[in-house]
């Protein structure tokens, strides 16, 4: 189950995440949320 959490991101990190999101949107026929991208990056970093 998802949990709502508020975080502050540095603008350069947010930009990189937005660029990743845009790339995934172009590759996919469906929408890709910013939260999904953040979760994927955090999951990879925590493994």
Helix percentage range: 55-70%
Mean pLDDT: 96
Let me know the number of strands.
0
Poorly predicted sequence stretches spanning 5 or more consecutive residues: none
- The domain tally reads 1
**What is the element string, with H for helices and E for strands?**
HH
The gyration radius over C-alpha positions equals 11 Å
Structural class: mainly alpha
Q: Mind describing the biggest β-sheet?
A: none
Please state the overall shape, judged from the principal axes of the Cα atoms.
globular
Strand content: under 5%
Describe the structure.
With 47 residues, the protein is mainly alpha-helical. It has one domain. Helices cover 64% and strands 0% of the residues. It has two helices and no strands. The radius of gyration is 11 Å and the shape is globular. It starts with 10 loop residues before the first helix and ends with a helix.
Layout of helices and strands, plus pairs?
Blueprint lengths: L10 H17 L6 H13 L1
How would you concisely characterize the structure shown here?
The chain has 47 residues and is mainly α. Helix content is 64%, strand content 0%.
Main attributes of the structure:
47 residues, mainly alpha, 2 helices
